[in-house]
Amino acid sequence: YPGAILFNAGILGLASITAQKVLRTLYRPLVAQNPHHRLMIVLWLVLYAFVGIQTAWVLRPFLGDPAMPVQFFREDAWGNAYEHVAQIIWGLLRR
Protein backbone atom coordinates (compact mmCIF):
# COMPACT_ATOMS: atom_id res chain seq x y z
CA TYR A 1 0.00 0.00 0.00
CA PRO A 2 2.74 2.58 0.76
CA GLY A 3 4.37 1.71 -2.55
CA ALA A 4 1.05 2.22 -4.34
CA ILE A 5 0.68 5.66 -2.75
CA LEU A 6 4.16 6.66 -3.86
CA PHE A 7 3.55 5.24 -7.35
CA ASN A 8 0.39 7.32 -7.71
CA ALA A 9 2.21 10.40 -6.42
CA GLY A 10 4.90 9.82 -9.04
CA ILE A 11 2.39 9.41 -11.86
CA LEU A 12 0.55 12.56 -10.79
CA GLY A 13 3.90 14.36 -10.66
CA LEU A 14 4.72 13.16 -14.17
CA ALA A 15 1.33 14.39 -15.40
CA SER A 16 2.01 17.76 -13.79
CA ILE A 17 5.41 18.02 -15.45
CA THR A 18 3.88 17.15 -18.81
CA ALA A 19 1.17 19.77 -18.32
CA GLN A 20 3.88 22.28 -17.38
CA LYS A 21 5.71 21.60 -20.65
CA VAL A 22 2.53 22.15 -22.66
CA LEU A 23 1.82 25.33 -20.70
CA ARG A 24 5.34 26.63 -21.32
CA THR A 25 4.96 25.98 -25.05
CA LEU A 26 1.69 27.87 -25.18
CA TYR A 27 2.98 30.68 -22.96
CA ARG A 28 6.16 31.18 -25.00
CA PRO A 29 4.68 34.08 -27.06
CA LEU A 30 3.44 35.77 -23.87
CA VAL A 31 6.81 35.40 -22.14
CA ALA A 32 8.48 36.88 -25.22
CA GLN A 33 6.24 39.95 -24.89
CA ASN A 34 6.57 40.28 -21.10
CA PRO A 35 8.99 38.23 -18.94
CA HIS A 36 6.64 38.51 -15.93
CA HIS A 37 4.55 35.74 -17.49
CA ARG A 38 7.36 33.30 -16.65
CA LEU A 39 6.75 33.98 -12.95
CA MET A 40 3.07 33.12 -13.44
CA ILE A 41 4.04 29.72 -14.87
CA VAL A 42 6.21 28.96 -11.84
CA LEU A 43 3.57 30.16 -9.39
CA TRP A 44 0.93 28.06 -11.14
CA LEU A 45 3.07 24.92 -10.87
CA VAL A 46 3.84 25.45 -7.18
CA LEU A 47 0.22 26.17 -6.29
CA TYR A 48 -1.06 23.29 -8.44
CA ALA A 49 1.31 20.81 -6.79
CA PHE A 50 0.58 22.03 -3.26
CA VAL A 51 -3.21 21.94 -3.64
CA GLY A 52 -3.16 18.75 -5.71
CA ILE A 53 -1.20 16.78 -3.13
CA GLN A 54 -3.45 17.81 -0.26
CA THR A 55 -6.62 17.20 -2.33
CA ALA A 56 -5.41 13.74 -3.28
CA TRP A 57 -4.75 13.10 0.41
CA VAL A 58 -8.29 14.03 1.40
CA LEU A 59 -9.77 11.89 -1.39
CA ARG A 60 -7.32 9.01 -0.94
CA PRO A 61 -9.99 6.36 -0.27
CA PHE A 62 -10.12 6.03 -4.05
CA LEU A 63 -6.74 4.31 -3.69
CA GLY A 64 -7.95 1.29 -1.79
CA ASP A 65 -6.26 -0.36 1.17
CA PRO A 66 -7.63 -3.91 1.52
CA ALA A 67 -7.06 -3.78 5.28
CA MET A 68 -9.37 -0.79 5.78
CA PRO A 69 -13.16 -0.66 5.61
CA VAL A 70 -14.80 1.06 2.65
CA GLN A 71 -15.82 4.65 3.43
CA PHE A 72 -15.65 7.95 1.56
CA PHE A 73 -13.89 10.03 4.22
CA ARG A 74 -11.68 8.37 6.81
CA GLU A 75 -11.38 9.72 10.35
CA ASP A 76 -7.86 11.01 9.72
CA ALA A 77 -8.67 12.38 6.26
CA TRP A 78 -8.02 15.98 7.22
CA GLY A 79 -4.41 15.42 8.27
CA ASN A 80 -1.27 16.68 6.59
CA ALA A 81 -0.36 14.81 3.41
CA TYR A 82 3.24 16.01 3.44
CA GLU A 83 3.92 14.61 6.90
CA HIS A 84 2.48 11.22 5.99
CA VAL A 85 4.40 10.95 2.69
CA ALA A 86 7.64 11.78 4.53
CA GLN A 87 6.87 9.00 7.05
CA ILE A 88 6.24 6.52 4.20
CA ILE A 89 9.51 7.40 2.47
CA TRP A 90 11.42 7.16 5.76
CA GLY A 91 9.84 3.77 6.48
CA LEU A 92 10.77 2.43 3.04
CA LEU A 93 14.35 3.70 3.36
CA ARG A 94 14.84 2.08 6.78
CA ARG A 95 14.06 -1.42 5.47
Give a short overview.
The protein is built from three helices and no strands. With 95 residues, it is an all-alpha fold.
Name a few traits of the molecule:
73% helix; single chain
Secondary-structure map:
Blueprint: H1 2-33, H2 36-58, H3 81-94
Helix pairs in contact: 1-2, 1-3
How many β-strand stretches? 0
Number of H/I helices: 3
Helicity range of the residues?
A: over 70%
Report the biggest beta sheet as strand number plus sense, adding barrel if it closes.
none
User: What is the percentage of strand-forming residues?
Assistant: under 5%
Overall mean pLDDT stands at: 80
Q: Give the oligomeric state of the chains in this entry, treating copies of one chain as homo and distinct chains as hetero.
A: single chain
Shape call:
elongated
| Class by alpha and beta content | mainly alpha
Would you give an account of this structure?
The longest helix is centred in the first third of the chain and has 32 residues, at 2-33. α1 (2-33) crosses α3 (81-94). This protein has 95 residues and is an all-alpha fold. Helices cover 73% and strands 0% of the residues. It is built from three helices and no strands. The mean pLDDT is 80.
